[in-house]
Design a protein that fits this description.
Elements (H helix, E strand, L loop, with lengths): L7 E4 L3 E6 L12 E6 L1 H12 L3 E8 L2 H12 L2 E9 L6 E4 L9 E4 L15 H4 L4 E5 L8 H14 L3 E5 L11 H14 L2 E5 H8 L4 H8 L5 E5 L4 E6 L2 E6 L11 H14 L4 H16 L11 H10 L3
Parallel strand pairs: 1-4, 1-8, 2-6, 4-5, 8-9, 9-10, 10-11
Antiparallel strand pairs: 2-3, 6-7, 11-12, 12-13
């Protein structure tokens, strides 16, 4: 455990990824799977830590061997786990994914009684938030209480402290059981409290209830808010203070699409922490995301700063 201050504190999913080792086969056809630590918050935490940021994760995992596995891995990656709680009432989330090189594969979540949705203010107290420079929360955490209430409370503290408040839209349809109106209401409350939003086109539409990306952006644009739209190898677009900044992506040999967005967030947040221009931060995020989708895992494929910088020099766009 580190003593802070932290560069980044995250609240959200930490689970187990089981990715097919039978490349090109569907989940039904696959017989062999590799186990990794996953979940968007855990992935970004590992990515940020590997890049050199002092990072802490607040979440809950099952009180079992899978929970031990996640905590041990995060400790090895130098992510502060002082606020990762083992909860006997919750289960560690699991996702199975097929690996279809060159295109996105399907994935299946098992998240009944997901422990990460049981987080409370005890897990992310004001004292922790006051020790960081940025707070990152995720959309999936809004899908149920007490997690949603905890996220709003944490963002309120961060807002009072004048911290960077990042909302990873993280829209996963199968993880929501609420009506669309309630989903949009919950997202809009979080959006109103965030000053940095990151997601792809579908996530912006789902979060706002708009019919198009353009309508979604127009609905939530604010002079003090940074909106980032990720588009895979096509690149990313940043909207801020009336400007639209497009940053080209990197064309790479895709092993899997999973984790690319998490890699982007880790790289982009690193750039923000170093006070880079938004264009430079987005380019770095594009590079980290491209590196992740070339690997079999998500968390394990996160690069160090040196690896990401070397990739950009070699593949300069």
């Amino acid at each position: 455990m580190t003593n802070g201050p932290f560069d980044l504190v995250l609240v959200g999913r930490a689970g187990v990824d089981l990715y097919s080792l039978d490349y090109g086969r569907t989940i039904k056809e696959s017989e062999r799977f590799a186990k990794y630590v996953g979940g968007t918050a855990a992935n970004v935490a590992v990515g940020a830590a590997r890049l050199g940021l002092r990072t802490a994760l607040a979440t809950r995992v099952g009180d079992d061997e899978l929970g031990d596995y996640i905590i041990g891995y995060l400790e090895k990656e130098r992510v502060d786990v002082g606020h990762v709680r083992k909860d006997p009432a919750g289960r560690t989330g699991i996702v199975f994914a097929e690996i279809l090189p060159g295109r996105d594969g399907k994935f299946v979540f098992y998240r009944e009684k997901a422990a990460d949705l049981l987080v409370t203010d005890v897990d992310i107290p004001a004292s922790l938030i006051k020790r960081t420079r940025a707070l990152l929360v995720t959309g999936t955490g809004l899908s149920a209480n007490p997690s949603a209430r905890t996220i709003y409370n944490a963002m309120a503290v961060a807002e009072r402290e004048g911290l960077t408040r990042i909302l990873n839209l993280d829209w996963r349809p199968s993880l929501w059981s609420l009506p669309a109106e309630e989903r949009v209401s919950r997202y809009k409350k979080a959006i109103s409290m965030a000053n940095v939003l990151i997601g792809n086109e579908g996530e912006y539409i789902a979060a706002t209830g708009a019919k198009t990306l353009e309508a979604a952006i127009e609905q939530i644009r604010d002079s003090d808010r940074v909106l980032v739209v990720t588009s895979g190898e096509k690149g990313s677009t940043v909207y801020t203070q009336g400007r639209r900044i497009f940053v080209p992506g990197f064309k790479v040999k895709l092993v899997k699409g999973l984790g690319g967005g998490d890699g982007f967030i880790a790289g982009f947040v690193y750039g923000l922490s170093k006070k880079w221009t938004l264009a430079k931060a987005a380019k770095f995020g594009n590079a980290v995301g491209a590196i992740v989708v070339m690997g079999h895992a998500c968390s394990e494929s996160m690069p160090s700063y040196g690896e990401a910088a070397k990739f950009i020099r070699k593949n300069g766009n």
